[in-house]
From TrEMBL:
Transmembrane segment boundaries: 21-48, 54-73, 85-107, 113-136, 148-172, 178-198, 232-255, 261-285, 297-320, 332-355, 375-395, 401-419
Its membrane topology: Multi-pass membrane protein
Species whose genome carries this gene: Microbacterium deminutum
Places the protein is found: Cell inner membrane
Keyword terms: Cell membrane, Membrane, Transmembrane, Transmembrane helix, Transport
Coiled coil found in the keyword field: no
Residue ranges that the Swiss-Prot or TrEMBL entry lists as coiled coil: none
SUPFAM superfamilies: MFS general substrate transporter (SSF103473)
Protein's recorded name: MFS transporter
Pfam family, one: MFS_3
Length: 435
C-alpha cells in the first residue's frame, strides 16, 4: 500500500539519474521565479509612472512579435550550433537587460520607454532560452523519463505563478523596484550555473544554417508530422476558446466582487492546479497512449472552463450574492467554487502539456527539434493572446459569463471531432513514437 501511494507522487528519477538535468532544473526554477518578479514589477512600475492600465497592457502586446521572431530564430540556432552556447548567450542578454533595469531604478533614471524596451529584450531572449532548453532535455535523459521531466516543469510553472506575483507585490511595497529587480539578477545566476556545467550539446544529424531554408525545413517536417501538428491545433483551440484570464479583473470588480483579491485568487487557482497535477503525476508516466491522454485532458479542461462559466452565470443571477457586490463585498461561496473549477482546469492543462512536451521531445528527430520547439513557443504564446481577444470581445458585446460557458462547449466539440478524425493520434504509442 505504501508503495502504491508513493507511485502516485511525482517521479523524481530525472533529478537523480542526470545531475546535469537536476542543476538545469533547479537553475530554471529559481531564475523563473526571479523572472516573474521582474514581469510583475515592470507592470507595477509602468502603472506608477503613467497611472494608465492601457500602458500596462501594451507591455505584453509590444513583446509579442519579438517573442515570436526570437522563438523561431532561436529554434534555428539550436539546430545549427552548440545548444549550451546558444542558451548561455541568450541568458546573458536577459541578464544584461535585467541588470540595466536594476541600475536605472537605483539611479532613479527609469522611464516608461526604458521599461518597454528592456522588457521586450528580456522577452525575446527568454524565448531563445526556452526553445534551446527544451531541445537540450532529451539529450540529458532516457526517453522513458521525459514525462517525469515534463511534470517537473509543471512544478516550476506552478511555483512561478503561485509565488512570483505575490512575492513581487510584497517586495515592491516593502523595498521598492530597485531591490526587486536586483533580486531577479541574483536568482538568475543559478541558471548560468545550470547551463555552464552542461556538456557540449551539438545537434545530431544534418545541420542547416539559420535562415529561410532552415525555417522552411521545419515547416515541411511539420506538414509530414500529423501527430505533432494536431497537438499544436488542439492547444490553440483550448487556449483560444477556453482561456478566461482577461476577464478576471472585471469578474472581481462587478460579478463576484472582491476586486484585485478575487483576480489574484482566480489567477493563482490555475497555478495550484498545475502544481498539484505535477505533484501527483506518478501515473502519468505509465500511460503509453499520449494522444489519447492529450484528448482526455483537454476535454476535462473544456468541461472545467464551461463549469466556470456556469458559476459566473449563477453569480449574474444573484445566487448567493450579498446585497451589493464590489471590491469590498464579495460572493465568497461562488468565488470558492469558481476557484475549484479553475484548479481542475489548470491541472488538466498541465497534464496535456506533459504529454505534448513528451511527444515533442521523443518523436521529433534531434536535428530539427529546436525549430519545432520554436514553433511550439509561437503556439504557446500566441494562443492565450488570441484567447484574450476572443473573451474580451465577446464579453464586451454580450456578458462576462458567456465566453467561458460557450468556449468550454466549443473546446469539447472541436477536440472530440478532430481527434475522432485522426485515429493515428489516438493510437500514438510512447514506446514507438511517430511524429
Amino acid at each position: 500500500m505504501a508503495r502504491l501511494r508513493r507511485d502516485h507522487f511525482i517521479d523524481l528519477r530525472p533529478l537523480t539519474t542526470s545531475p546535469a538535468f537536476a542543476r538545469l532544473w533547479i537553475g530554471s526554477t529559481l531564475s523563473g521565479l526571479g523572472g516573474q518578479l521582474t514581469v510583475v514589477a515592470v507592470m507595477l512600475h509602468v502603472y506608477a509612472l503613467t497611472q494608465d492600465t492601457f500602458a500596462v497592457a501594451m507591455i505584453a502586446v509590444a513583446g509579442l512579435l519579438p517573442m515570436i521572431v526570437a522563438g523561431l530564430y532561436g529554434g534555428m540556432l539550436a539546430d545549427a550550433f552548440d545548444r549550451r552556447i546558444v542558451a548561455l548567450i541568450a541568458a546573458s542578454i536577459t541578464f544584461a537587460a535585467t541588470t540595466t533595469l536594476a541600475l536605472l531604478a537605483w539611479a532613479e533614471l527609469e522611464s516608461v520607454w526604458w521599461l518597454y524596451v528592456l522588457s521586450v529584450i528580456i522577452s525575446a531572449a527568454n524565448s531563445i532560452v526556452m526553445a534551446t532548453k527544451s531541445a537540450i532535455t532529451p539529450r540529458l535523459l532516457p526517453r522513458e523519463l521525459l514525462p517525469a521531466a515534463a511534470a517537473l516543469q509543471g512544478i516550476t510553472v506552478g511555483v512561478m505563478v503561485m509565488a512570483g506575483p505575490a512575492l513581487a507585490g510584497v517586495l515592491v511595497a516593502l523595498t521598492g523596484y530597485a531591490w526587486t529587480y536586483t533580486i531577479d539578477v541574483v536568482l538568475m545566476l543559478s541558471l548560468f550555473l545550470g547551463l555552464w556545467t552542461l556538456p557540449s550539446i551539438r545537434p545530431e544529424g544534418q545541420l542547416v544554417r539559420p535562415g529561410l531554408e532552415s525555417l522552411r525545413d521545419g515547416w515541411q517536417f511539420l506538414r509530414r508530422a500529423p501527430n505533432i501538428r494536431l497537438q499544436y491545433i488542439l492547444d490553440i483551440i483550448a487556449m483560444t476558446f477556453g482561456q478566461p484570464l482577461a476577464l478576471f479583473p472585471a469578474i472581481g470588480a462587478v460579478l463576484l466582487g472582491g476586486g484585485p483579491i478575487t483576480t489574484g485568487v482566480l489567477t493563482a487557482s490555475f497555478a495550484v492546479g498545475a502544481f498539484l497535477s505535477s505533484l501527483f503525476s506518478g501515473p502519468i508516466g505509465r500511460v503509453r497512449h499520449h494522444g489519447l491522454g492529450i484528448e482526455r485532458a483537454i476535454l476535462v479542461y473544456g468541461a472545467s472552463i464551461g463549469a466556470f462559466g456556469v458559476v459566473l452565470l449563477a453569480a449574474a443571477l444573484g445566487v448567493g450574492a450579498p446585497p451589493t457586490v464590489d471590491a469590498t463585498s464579495a460572493n465568497l461561496t461562488l468565488i470558492i467554487v469558481a476557484g475549484l473549477f479553475l484548479v481542475v482546469a489548470g491541472g488538466a492543462d498541465n497534464v496535456s502539456a506533459i504529454y505534448r512536451s513528451t511527444m515533442m521531445q521523443a518523436a521529433v528527430p534531434d536535428s530539427i527539434r529546436g525549430r519545432l520547439q520554436g514553433i511550439f513557443i509561437v503556439v504557446v504564446t500566441g494562443g492565450p493572446r488570441v484567447g484574450a481577444l476572443y473573451a474580451g470581445a465577446l464579453a464586451t458585446l454580450t456578458t462576462l459569463w458567456l465566453p467561458p460557458l460557450l468556449g468550454g462547449f466549443v473546446v469539447i466539440a472541436l477536440v472530440a471531432l478532430l481527434v475522432r478524425r485522426s485515429p493515428r493520434f489516438r493510437a500514438y504509442d510512447a514506446e514507438h513514437p511517430v511524429p
